[in-house]
């Protein structure tokens, strides 16, 4: 018929359809950071009792087309979590304590990131390897040696969480971690973001970074087992060089599990991570939940959304 535009092909319509987006974040000093589509929102409780809320635009790397490529997106997500998380922690420390410090520069952030990553690699990858190699004279199987190394690594991680969890400042961060999960759970359930309502939700979440780290530690056992038992220097190099690969695989697995959590088999796969979250989250106070809600609302506002989700975007 004249004057009528042809209907676009079905595949074109599907390509134009907006992909689902899942909000998440992390706890910071005295507050919560929520990651939106194009920005991060940070809410921090000031010493005078007020709440400081700020928004920062995301770099193209964290929201560009590479962020959608399987495996590549896992590496980018790891970089994003470490860099943005460090920046948010440094900023929140200034706000929550109201200290006059130098302006946070990219050099300070990257310096902290490098030191933190090196310490994590040494503590959770190099030391378990060296500990397992001490037992090599008594172990004939290279596979068993790698399994023992992996078990030592997981034990180190759990002990580390138990030790830092006894520190007052860390306990407060863990409470804000719980508040962050509760606000995300409430939003994804379509509930209003009000303190009384959010307090009814769980402090556990399937997309938590704690679960991701556990998945990475378990996957590392399988990946390193494929390498056998090479000389110690090659083994150390492999633990460092293969970490991004393992993180990428872990990201894809946790993403799949979170999207299929209603499947009974997948649900049981999620259970260990949810159990471990009991060590990194605490039941927050109303005041802490209020801060998490402020961060969540600001993130939604920045994305042009309301504080109640009719469906998960």
Any overview of this molecule?
The chain is of the alpha+beta class. Helix content is 60%, strand content 8%. It has one domain (22-301). It has helices spanning 10-16, 72-97, 106-133, 142-164, 168-188, 195-198, 209-225, 232-241, 243-259, 264-280, 286-302; strands spanning 24-28, 31-35, 39-45, 51-57. A hairpin with a 5-residue loop joins strand 3 (39-45) and strand 4 (51-57). Helix 2 (72-97) packs across helix 3 (106-133). The chain is globular, with a radius of gyration of 22 Å. The model is unreliable at 1-16 (pLDDT under 50).
What is the overall pLDDT average?
A: 87
Count the beta strands: 4
Instruction: Walk across the major sheet and give the strand order.
Output: 1-2-3-4
Detail the poorly predicted runs: 1-16
Structure at a glance:
The chain is of the alpha+beta class and 313 residues long. Helices cover 60% and strands 8% of the residues.
List the helices and strands and how they pair.
Elements: H1 10-16, E1 24-28, E2 31-35, E3 39-45, E4 51-57, H2 72-97, H3 106-133, H4 142-164, H5 168-188, H6 195-198, H7 209-225, H8 232-241, H9 243-259, H10 264-280, H11 286-302
Antiparallel strand pairs: 1-2, 2-3, 3-4
Helix pairs in contact: 2-3, 2-9, 3-4, 3-8, 4-7, 5-11, 7-9, 7-10
């Amino acid at each position: 018929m004249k004057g009528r535009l042809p209907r676009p092909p079905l595949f074109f319509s599907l390509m134009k359809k907006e992909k689902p987006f899942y909000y998440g974040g992390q706890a910071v000093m005295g507050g919560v950071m929520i990651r939106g589509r194009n920005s991060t929102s940070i809410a921090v409780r000031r010493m005078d009792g007020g709440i400081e809320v700020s928004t920062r635009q995301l770099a193209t790397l964290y929201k560009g087309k590479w962020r959608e490529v399987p495996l590549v997106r896992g590496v980018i997500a790891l970089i994003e979590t470490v860099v943005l998380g460090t920046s948010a922690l440094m900023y929140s420390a200034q706000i929550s304590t109201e200290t006059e410090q130098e302006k946070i520069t990219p050099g300070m952030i990257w310096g902290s990131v490098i030191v933190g990553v090196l310490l994590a690699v040494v503590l959770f990858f190099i030391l378990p390897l060296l500990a397992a190699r001490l037992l090599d004279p008594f172990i004939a199987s290279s596979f068993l040696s790698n399994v023992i190394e992996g078990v030592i690594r997981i034990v180190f991680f759990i002990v580390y969480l138990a030790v830092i969890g006894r520190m007052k400042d860390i306990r407060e961060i863990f409470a804000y971690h719980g508040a962050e999960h509760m606000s995300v759970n409430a939003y994804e359930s379509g509930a209003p973001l009000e303190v009384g309502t959010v307090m009814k939700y769980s402090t556990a979440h399937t997309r938590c970074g704690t679960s991701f780290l556990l998945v990475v530690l378990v996957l590392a056992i399988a990946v390193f087992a494929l390498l056998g038992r090479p000389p110690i220097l090659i083994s150390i190099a492999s633990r460092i060089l293969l970490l991004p690969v393992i993180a990428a695989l872990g990201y894809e697995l946790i993403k799949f599990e979170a999207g299929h959590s209603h499947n009974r088999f997948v649900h049981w796969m999620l259970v260990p991570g949810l159990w471990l979250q009991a060590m990194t989250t605490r039941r927050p106070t109303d005041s802490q939940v209020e801060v998490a809600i402020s961060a969540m609302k600001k993130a939604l506002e920045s994305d042009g959304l309301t504080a109640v989700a009719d469906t998960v975007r």
